[in-house]
Amino acid sequence: MGHLKQQRESEDSWYATAPDRQRHEALLRKALDVILEEAVFAGTSRDGKVCEWRDPEELRKTLDLSLPHGDGKEPADDATLLRLVRDTIKYSVKTGHPYFINQLYSGLDPYGLVGQWLTDALNPSVYTYEVSPVFTLMEEAVLQEMRNIVGFPVDQGDGIFCPGGSMANGYAISCARYHYFPEVKTKGMHGLPRLAVFTSEDAHYSVLKMATLLGLGGDSVYMVRTDARGRMDAAHLDELVTKARESGAHPLLVSATAGTTVLGAYDPIEPLTAACRRHNMWLHVDAAWGGGALMSRRRRHLLRGVHLADSVTWNPHKLLAAPQQCSTFLTRHTGVLGGAHSAKATYLFQPDKFYDTRYDTGDKHVQCGRRADVLKFWFMWKAKGTLGLEKHIDHLFDNVTYFKEAIRCRPGWELVLREPECTNVCFWYVPPSLRGQQDQADYNDRLHKVAPKIKERMMKEGSMMVTYQPLRGLPNFFRLVLQSSATTVEDMDHFICEIERLGCDL
Predict the structure, then answer these.
(1) Partner of 311 for a Cys bridge, out of 245, 279, 331, 432, CB 3.0 to 4.6 A?
(2) CA separation for the pair 110, 390 (Å, rounded)
């Protein structure tokens, strides 16, 4: 009787948000098998496509995206759900594929994947120790070690995991504003001078967005010129600071970039530090992309002086290839995050708990509910060690050397920067019809159309994905982003041959 009662209760509660072995185990195991086979292994095989391209309207008709609602609309059965799993995989871009080199993330790390799955299975929210004891301590351990690697003073400073590098850059502006004007927390921008933020013309657009979001306004962001390699011009920064003061603004923050999005340039941190000290400004280093070079003894010189910064953005999901998303904000200033953002909600951060409430770290975040993005990166780091992460970084830079040398003297190939600083290799492919015509008046216009056409062809074939863009008047050029250490020199040769195949008749 008890068994029948339990069965009836299970049938009556088919909608319950709880795993039931009898009802769900077969689906879970079959779905996991499909994910492993088709997304993890087949999806990263060089024999498979990077994408199965469909135009939006065609894809809308191919996928059953309708939702069951209203009378007579039965929920999907297991067979339908498994088909939807397969369709989702089939028509999604395989970002773990070795030929996906389109964005500042790629690869599929098996240890990171285990950490990601475990995170989702536990479904934590990291704001108090009582609900996330393991992840609270794990975050503190990882953030402390990252601050040590940056070179901040031992046992000093603070850090948080953020929902992306854009938000981390927003935290920098917020912390700088509170550091110099703590009254902003209670009184707002009213009564403060007009604040000025300085960053390079090649910096990530989030600096402008965050200044707008935080109430400084877009006009408060001064764009500093870059040199021929894309690095911020410290002398021009001084000129703009003077200009801002003369207009009645108060210079607040300089956001330097360690690894710009397009060219991969590293701003000169030491001269910028000197400028910030002269003008009493906060120095932030947006190392979301290029910060991974700190893990390599051969490459950390690219961020020389980063230990002098007030704060740093560093995204392990970029150059270190942790799964999306995994972003951190690090600062040398103890207490500024909590001071700027805490609200002391007594239903969550009660001061009379039975344990040390210093471990209730959530109040220094703008968010309340927050994923445990630390686990996937911590698990990778444990599995590979710092040495493994260093070898990963060195492999990426070795691939850059191979690729740039392979195309340097190859007919029809032209580097935008002869010596890239990071793992972005920017280049033009000039098809045979345009070679030798550089003196023609319409040459740049015609070259500008080459990269988009080659990109269209590779996407429709699904053979690879590499992005392109213009920059400061230059015609469209390709940007090969080398971020996965699964990429080999044979892959470099494949990229070259594939671009030539797709563009030779243009």
Answers:
(1) 331
(2) 18
**Residue appearing with tokens 């630390």:** 374
Provide the 3-class DSSP secondary structure of residue 241.
helix
Sheet holding 327-331, edge to edge: 158-162, 327-331, 311-314, 282-286, 249-257, 194-200, 221-224
- Tokens found for residue 352: 């009379």
Find out whether 176 and 310 touch, Cβ atoms under 8 Å: yes
Q: At 442, is the secondary structure helix, strand, or coil?
A: coil
DSSP 8-state class, residue 41: I
454-487 per-position pLDDT tens digit: 999 999 999 999 999 999 999 999 999 999 999 9
Query: Residues 126, 366, 307, 249: what is their CA dihedral angle, to the nearest 10 degrees?
Result: 180
Residue with tokens 């309207």, as numbered in its chain: 57
368-427: pLDDT as tens digits: 999 999 999 999 999 999 999 999 999 999 999 999 999 999 999 999 999 999 999 999
Measured CA to CA, the distance from residue 122 to residue 93 in angstroms comes to: 27
Side chain identity at 157, as an amino acid letter? G
- Placement of tokens 């947006």 in the chain: 286
Can you tell me which residue has the tokens 């690879």?
464
Cis preceding-peptide flag for 116 (omega within 30 of 0): no
The one-letter amino acid at 257: T
Contacts of 176 (CB under 8 A, 6+ apart): 252, 253, 281, 282, 284, 310, 311
pTM: 0.94
Q: How many CB atoms within 10 Å of residue 17?
A: 5
